[in-house]
Amino acid sequence: MAIDVVKVEIKSVMDASGLEEFIRAKRFAADEVVAVIGKTEGNGGVNDFTRILSDQAFRNVLRNYGTRSEAEVKAIPMVWSGGCDGVITPHATVFARNGKTGPADTMRLAMGTAMSPQILPEDIGRPAMVEKVAEGVRLAMRDAGIADPKDVHYVQTKTPLLTIETIQEAHARGKDVFCEVHDSMGVSNGTTALGIGVALGEISMPRAEEICRNLNLYSSVASCSSGVELDCAQIVLLGNKAGAGGRYRIGHSVMRDALDIDGIYNAIRNAGLALPERPRAEDLGGKLVNCFMKCEADKSARLRGRRQIMLDDSDVHHHRHSKAAVGGVAAAAIGDPAVFVSVDAMHQGPHGGGPVIAIVDVGE
User: Fold this and answer.
1) Which of 66, 106, 202, 224 is the most buried (most CB within 10 A)?
2) 245: region left, alpha or beta (phi > 0 left; psi from -120 to 50 alpha)
3) Which residue positions in the chain have pLDDT lower than 70?
4) Which of 22, 31, 99, 95 is nearest to 63 (CA)?
5) Nearest to 3, CA basis, from 122, 136, 130, 153
6) 3-state secondary structure string, the chain?
7) Which of 7, 39, 132, 158 is labelled catalytic?
8) Does 294 participate in catalysis according to the annotation?
9) Do residues 284 and 268 make contact, with C-beta atoms less than 8 angstroms apart?
10) Which of the following is catalytic: 188, 225, 253, 322?
11) Cα–Cα separations (whole angstroms), residue 173 to 60, 127, 177, 342
12) How far is the C-alpha of 37 from the C-alpha of 76, rounded, in Å?
């Protein structure tokens, strides 16, 4: 079953008119929408309510134009990443599944979703969470009909983080937790990425002392987010599958550091779009749907031998520095500021860099 993909701008905090326009134009039906991945304009922190507002707006459109029940619409994976620092434009990438198929020898975009077993507060940052995420990723592969891990190019997750209430609940059961509330977003993301890497054979099962410490361990296809709204890993897995049909292919690469524009173009090439040796945005020819990437400040506070101050800045958090910088590089590379850039990239791509995923239109 073919996957259709569109990118829509979010014009205000609760705007979902772009999704509504595609449904009204009969590009796809509301009941065919199977996932949404978007950037919202809040602070990107624990208390970023713009994610909730966008989630409500998009689900309202699907309820108003479709026939699915309240529970079915609520179950649609929607991953919202807060924070549009620098030039990043708030936007959403919408995935819809239709009944089309394609030639058995032609690889096209396929998608699977899954929910992991429940992740307890004491699991976060520990091998139990790695194992539970890996189990969920394998389920998502089966849902996508993808057998070879090498055909998986993007695993977007949303996992729980710690709150005062969940920490107290764990303590009441005689359990301790790995970290404090404000560290748990990065720890949850990093532990999840290791689970993705284990499931796809990118790395071996890490030892407990390596989790969130050995930064040489990473997944090249993981993009992990966390929040307070769930108690398991919500997984959206994308790859290429023979016979899937449709117009789209997906590929990936990594940025070795925050300035590695070649990593972006390599992901686009890996998706199936031919580019010259030294590409420009104009060479994409309107065939790129979107790029998805993770980034993080290098803990060495150096970039290509030059000193960096973002880790010392007490006024602006280093997440906002790195997101704005990589967002600018990405926008220049693809000629579009509506690009998905997310931070807290521990174990997601090489340290100081991050994964880059590209979806391109290669025709029927």
Assistant:
1) 224
2) left
3) none
4) 31
5) 153
6) CCEEEEEEECCCCCCCHHHHHHHHCCCCCHHHEEEEEEEECCCCCCCCCHHHHHHHHHHHHHHHHCCCCHHHHHCCCEEEEECCCCCCCCEEEEEEECCCCCCCCCEEEEEEEEECCCCCHHHCCCHHHHHHHHHHHHHHHHHHCCCCHHHEEEEEEEEECCCHHHHHHHHHCCCCCCCCHHHHHHHHHHHHHHHHHHHCCCCCCCCHHHCCCCCCCCECCEEEEEECCCCCCEEEEEEEEECCCCCEEEEEEEECCCCCHHHHHHHHHHHCCCCCCCCCHHHHCCCEEEEEEECCCCCCCEECCEECCCCCCCCCCHHHHHHHHHHHHHHHHHCCCCCEEECCCCCECCCCCEEEEEEEECCC
7) 158
8) no
9) yes
10) 225
11) 38, 19, 11, 34
12) 11
| pLDDT tens sequence across 279-318 | 999 999 999 999 999 999 999 999 999 999 999 999 999 9
CA–CA dist 137, 10 (Å, integer): 29
For the stretch 79-133, pLDDT in tens is 999 999 999 999 999 999 998 888 888 999 999 999 999 999 999 999 999 999 9
